[in-house]
Amino acid sequence: MVSLLQTCFSNLSCSRAVLSRGHNDKKPQLSLKQEIQELRGCAGCLTSEFNLTDVLFFCRKAMENVVDDDVTKRFSPQKLDSWNLLTRNNHNFCHISLRLKVVWVLGLLLRYGVLLPLRVTLAITGICLFLVLSTLVGVLPNTRLRSCLSDKVHLMGCHICVRSLSAIITYHNRQNKPQNDGICVANHTTPIDGIILANDRCYSLVGQLHGGLLGMIQRAMVTSSPHIWFERAEVKDRHLVAKRLIDHVADKTKHPVLIFPEGTCINNTSVMMFRKSSFELGCTIYPVAIKYDPRFGDAFWNSSKFGLVRYLLRTMSSWAIVCSVWYLPPMNRKEGEDAVQFANRVKSVIAAKGGFVDLKWDGGLKRARVKEAFKEEQQELYSRLVVGVSQGADNAASDSAKES
Amino acid sequence: MGSRASTLLREEEIEEIKKETGFSHSQITRLYSRFTSLDKGENGTLSREDFQRIPELAINPLGDRIINAFFPEGEDQVNFRGFMRTLAHFRPIEDNEKNKNPTASEPLNSRSNKLLFAFRLYDLDRDDKISRDELLQVLRMMVGVNISDEQLGSIADRTIQEADTNGDSCISFQEFIKVLEKVDVEQKMSIRFLH
């Protein structure tokens, strides 16, 4: 059966690239300055401030980005090399054979008829059990027994939820597991990330208090264990947030805080800009890389396309969620390093471990437009080339420090 | 599966595009996949906002001019054919094409058509001449607020003076070609599409 699938789909690969450029190229990318000077050299005008050929550089760059860019493809599910019998992953594939259709229908029946009901039942049982036990434990006086019991209740809740998602998790480098004195940061792909990590040890979550079922779960959690939930109005107050985090981390009996610095879900092929707020606090950072195997089910939550409930249904009707979690050694801010540099350092460590592309772009670009300031930066770089010749060598030194 | 069929590319369309632009079958299907991923409205056409959503394009100083080149005169939507037609200008010139029959219609990615594309980036009102004002406007787009009006004006004047041969203070397409005659346009205005 497996070989049938393999032969059917080996030549139907949906490639991930349209251009041959960038990371795979051996030729180093030339900077704005070098390329424009090369263009001017061809036209025989090395000393002019501006040449009609300058426009060719921007033109080609723009066309390359129209055909393929680094950012927009991070906000949609990863494309697979061969089909995994899930309709939702069926992008450019078309009807192959009747036999395959039969296999697909069987798979559909299995997933929706057997797996989904089982999983949903398990999840509901687990959540109800968790709510009840957590509230009960919360009634106990604040002793070691209570925190011990609450840890067990949390872990039990997570184990059941993980089973209900059919998540197969492999933890690597457990010796680096986060300790009580720091902040754990990880790349964000789905709301399930928190459950995957909390399956191994207890964390304190940070976030906004919601209404509805989620809010109920949040309130139940906080009765037995110190999580940091904020009211909507408080979220904007950065000092308040920072103070509560620092207080929490300073208390060694409390669990490490779990934070996702990207701020939004990315599709697990890259790591985008880390918000610097968690890195300004001066605490130890425990980086964690989470990598999902897309062949068994796509874990990415495309929040602009569908809501949480539909996402959970999709996840529970996939084959499985298979992922690897790597615990990385703790990191601290170095002397003379500012929060942004520290954040980038942590980000590149996570990207290297998980095999992700390390991007400097903000995950917020999923919904928002890019800031004008970046365009102004490009204009400034170019205008140095235009006036640079007349202003002489003192500009050349600062030019070489910047790359386009 | 039914509704998706209407957005899939038909074989006849692929053949037509192949003939018009010279892209291979797999290149066309890949670029179609890219086109649909940019088309958030899922109506088979792209608007200017769809292009602006690409961050690297939005921060390009000439981004707006390039985006404009995709849209036919006065229109706000571009379909896949128009998209491919514009991209075809950036297809590399293959060796076996250079010796083609000279009476056959010129391919979209010929040196002359590539230069015309670049010329039109400057020629804002499409009157086949680059006037001083147009040059100033494009220069202003490229340098932002970093250079004064006077300096920019003198740069524009000097550029026109060097290129203008018939004394009409504008740069015609022929004069433009002359300025760029030594530039390897075939290489500088080509993108390496995967096969």
Automatic annotation (TrEMBL), chain A:
Transmembrane segments: 120-140
Domain of life: Eukaryota
Classification via InterPro entries: LPCAT1-like (IPR045252), Plipid/glycerol_acylTrfase (IPR002123)
GO cellular component, one term: membrane
Keywords: Acyltransferase, Lipid biosynthesis, Lipid metabolism, Membrane, Phospholipid biosynthesis, Phospholipid metabolism, Transferase, Transmembrane, Transmembrane helix
Cytoplasm listed as a keyword: no
GO molecular function: glycerol-3-phosphate O-acyltransferase activity
Gene Ontology biological process: phospholipid biosynthetic process; triglyceride biosynthetic process
Database matches in SMART domains: PlsC (SM00563)
Domain Phospholipid/glycerol acyltransferase: 182-293
Cell location: Membrane
Pathway note: Lipid metabolism; Phospholipid metabolism
UniProt family annotation: Belongs to the 1-acyl-sn-glycerol-3-phosphate acyltransferase family.
This protein's name: Glycerol-3-phosphate acyltransferase 4
Source species of the chain: Nothobranchius furzeri (Turquoise killifish)
Automatic annotation (TrEMBL), chain B:
Keyword annotations: Calcium, Cell membrane, Cytoplasm, Lipoprotein, Membrane, Metal-binding, Myristate, Nucleus, Phosphoprotein, Protein transport, Repeat, Transport
One Gene Ontology MF term: calcium ion binding
Major location category of this protein: membrane
Compartments it resides in: Cell membrane; Cytoplasm; Nucleus
Domain EF-hand: 26-61, 110-145, 151-186
Source species, domain of life: Eukaryota
One GO cellular component term noted in the UniProt record for this chain: cytoplasm
GO biological process, one term: protein transport
Pfam family for this entry, one: EF-hand_7
Family indicated by similarity: Belongs to the calcineurin regulatory subunit family. CHP subfamily.
PANTHER family named among the record's database cross-references: EG:114D9.1 PROTEIN-RELATED (PTHR46002)
Protein name: Calcineurin-like EF hand protein 1
Organism, scientific name: Nothobranchius furzeri (Turquoise killifish)
Encoding gene (name): CHP1
